[in-house]
Amino acid sequence: MMRLSGRLRTATIIGMQGIRARKLRTFLSMVSLFLGVLAVVVVQAGAGIAERLQLADVELNSGIDGTKVLYMPTVPGANQAVVDTVHGRADAVALFNMSATIGEPGVRPINEGGSPFDQDWGGGSQICNQNGCYDPNAGAPQGQAIEMRLTALTGDVRPFRPYQLKSGQWLDFGSGPVMSPRLVLNEEAAKGFARYQVPAEMRVAGATANMTPQFIGVVKDGDPSPHAYLRFDDLTNWVPKAWLYDPNQMGDVQVAMAGSTPVEPVLMAKLTGLGAQGITADTINMRKQMKDELNLLRMIFLAMAGLVLVIGAAGVLNVGLATVGERIEEFALRRAVGTPRAVLAGIVLAETLLTGLLTAALAIGLSVAGLKVLAMFLGSSQPFLQNVEFPWSAGVSGIIAGLVAGILGGFIPALRAARIPIATVMRA
Questions:
Q1: Whether residue 143 has pLDDT greater than 80
Q2: Threshold 0.90, pTM exceeds
């Protein structure tokens, strides 16, 4: 082992001396490898960033893999059956989605249709029922009001959708209901209320009177439009249950359930008894599906980057063969004074490996700097670039790519150097 270590050290030292002595050829080899190694680093970094961004939000929007989601059919009594079944349970929660407006009454909201505040969806609010769809703000003047999506929860939804608390507190389902509904805003809604001063008056279709909400927290929920969450029993202080239970009046209702909960067969039986047909609970597998898609794209782009890397390795091979051809007398003389063939091969291979490592370091450094520059200049207009970090797994991939290219480009020249006969020095 010590003998092998000594040979490796000797080959590395002589290889470094060869790099210093032939700077131009080392530079040409690095140029040949640079694009290939850079392509590998960029593909791995881009895939890592995309995976982190998309998979981080997919659980917020769709739910944790394994969660079952049941969408309520529009049959009389379905919503009431849902509330009766999931009430007080931790393994299932019902989500009642509707539209709400907070601010001045009788005016058109700042963000009609509940659009994000920096976007204009180009349409007004629409309420649809058995009589058709209509705009409740038709003919109203523009005013200080914010329209948002409102979700009433029968329990804590975070075991199924891991909303990230940013400030304040989440809804407390262990206490009694209150007359002033407690709202948890998402980040887009919080931005709107920080930007605009609107009266604390909330209007919900079907309510007996306008409510005065209280904001208790802010969460990240992956929704780009303004959204707020409140307890179902806080809402029923103002909205008659008959209205919430009427499928012709209420918005969409869904139930999120744990995969092994007994709620599913009970709820299915109740809904079937009410006349619903073809009811199924969808199992969430979005994270696995998206990861498979991202991995497929990564493999396609890595194959293209690998092709560029092989072309670069061919350039290193060409330079290496030319260098060995010029150093035949040197290697023959080293053989004559007792240098083992393995050391001669190691000298050539060490040069190409060190060249590959230097190229990888340069490509990684350029990628890190480029990402920081992009975040600096485009971060304000591209939110996904804000606080983005370079995935060091891409750096590891770049180092491996540099070493592989060094081996591919130096293996044949190393064999050629090791086979140079001692008699060559006599002819020289």
A1: yes
A2: no
